[in-house]
Amino acid sequence: MLAMFFWAFIIGGIICLIGQLLFDVAKLTPGHTLSLMVVIGAVLSGFGLYEPLIDFAGAGATIPITSFGNSLVEGAMNEANKHGIVGVLTGMFEVTSSGISAAIIFGFIGALIFKPKG
C-alpha cells in the first residue's frame, strides 16, 4: 500500500513538474498550459497509454488536469462505439458533465463568498 502512495506522488509530481516547466521555461500562459496538458492527456488516451498510467499511479494520474483530456476521449470513444459519429459529441459531455458542473457551481459559490477581482 505504501508503494501505491509513493508512485501516485511521483507520477502526479512529474505531471505537475511538466506543467510548471511549461510556465517557467516555455513562458506559456496559464491558459495555454492548461489547454496543452488537457491535449496531452487526450493524446495519451487516444493511443491507449493513459489507462495503464492510471492503473499504475492511481490518483497520481487521475487528479491532474491531464485526466480531463483522458475523460473526454474515453467518453467520446465509448459513445462512438454505441451511437456512431453523433456519440462522439455527446459522449465527451456525458462523462465530464458532473466535473464541469461542479467547477461552475463551486466557482460561483466562491465568487459569492470572496471578492473576486476582474
Automatic annotation (TrEMBL):
Alphabetical keyword list: Membrane, Transmembrane, Transmembrane helix
InterPro entries in UniProt: Spore_V_AE (IPR014204), SpoVA (IPR005562)
Transmembrane helix listed as a keyword: yes
Membrane-spanning segments: 6-26, 33-50, 85-114
UniProt keyword Cytoplasm present: no
Pfam families with a match to the protein in the record: SpoVAC_SpoVAEB
Domain of life: Bacteria
PANTHER family assigned: STAGE V SPORULATION PROTEIN AC-RELATED, STAGE V SPORULATION PROTEIN AEB
Protein name: Stage V sporulation protein AE
Organism of provenance: Heyndrickxia sporothermodurans
